[in-house]
Design goal:
Helix content is about 30%, strand content about 20%. The protein is of the alpha/beta class. The chain has one domain: 2-Layer Sandwich (Nucleotidyltransferase, domain 5). Strands 4-3-2-1-5-6 form a 6-stranded mixed beta sheet. A hairpin with a 4-residue loop joins strand 1 and strand 2. The longest helix is centred in the C-terminal third of the chain and has 16 residues. The two termini are about 20 Å apart.
Length: about 190
C-alpha cells in the first residue's frame, strides 16, 4: 500500500531531530485515516530561527494528544500501517534476541513517498534506530514525488496545485504530497 510521508525536524548539519511526522494513505477507503504525531523528546530549544518562524507556529499546543515519545510514535506508525502481533511463542524470545524483527511487521508491505524525501526518510528510519533496524517488510528507501516532477519537467504550479496555506505542517504537507503525486500520475 502507498503512503505519503512528511516530517518537520531540526537539523544542524550533523543530526536530524524529528519534530512532527504525518502519514496519509493513498487507498481510497483509508484516505481520510491519517497518522500525525509530534515528538515530546525533541529539544525545541535547538530550533533555528527559520524553524521557529515557519514550523513551530504550525504545531498543536504542546502537551496535547498529538505529543508523544519517539517510542510511542514508532508504535503508532506500526498500528496505523496495520501491525501484525508477534506470535506468542516469539514474545519470550524478543527480550533475548534484541535484534529480532518479525518477517512481516505489517499486514501489507508499505510503499513510502515524500516530497524532497531525503531528510524525511532519515527522520522516519531513526524512529527504529538504524536503517537496518526497520521492521522486516519495510523498504530501505523512500520514493520521491519531486523526482517524478523533475523527470517530467513539471512543477506543482504546472499541474495546478498551490502549496498549502499551512505549509510546514507535516499533515498538511503529506496531504499536499499525495495530491501532487496523483496529479503527476494522471
Amino acid at each position: 500500500m502507498r503512503y505519503f510521508l512528511d516530517t518537520e525536524f531540526i537539523e544542524d548539519g550533523k543530526t536530524i531531530d524529528l519534530i512532527s511526522i504525518a502519514l496519509v494513505s493513498d487507498e481510497p477507503l483509508l484516505q481520510e485515516r491519517v497518522f500525525y504525531a509530534c515528538n515530546l523528546d525533541c529539544d525545541l530549544g535547538k530550533a533555528s530561527p527559520w524553524v521557529r518562524e515557519n514550523v513551530l507556529p504550525q504545531l498543536p499546543p504542546f502537551g496535547g494528544g498529538e505529543w508523544c515519545t519517539r517510542e510511542q510514535i514508532r508504535d503508532g506508525i506500526l498500528d496505523y500501517l496495520g501491525r501484525r502481533p508477534v506470535p506468542t511463542e516469539l514474545k519470550d524470545l524478543e527480550e533475548k534476541l534484541a535484534s529480532y524483527r518479525p518477517e512481516v511487521a505489517v499486514a501489507e508491505p508499505p510503499e513510502f513517498w515524500a516530497y524532497f524525501a531525503d531528510y524525511d526518510w532519515v527522520a522516519f528510519c531513526q524512529l527504529w534506530g538504524r536503517m537496518i533496524d526497520l521492521p522486516k517488510g519495510f523498504p530501505m528507501f523512500c520514493l520521491d514525488v519531486k523526482q517524478i516532477a523533475h523527470m517530467r519537467g513539471l512543477t506543482a504550479k504546472d499541474v495546478g496545485l498551490a502549496k498549502p496555506g499551512n505549509e510546514h505542517d507535516a499533515l498538511a504537507d503529506a496531504l499536499w504530497t499525495r495530491e501532487l503525486y496523483r496529479k503527476l500520475m494522471t
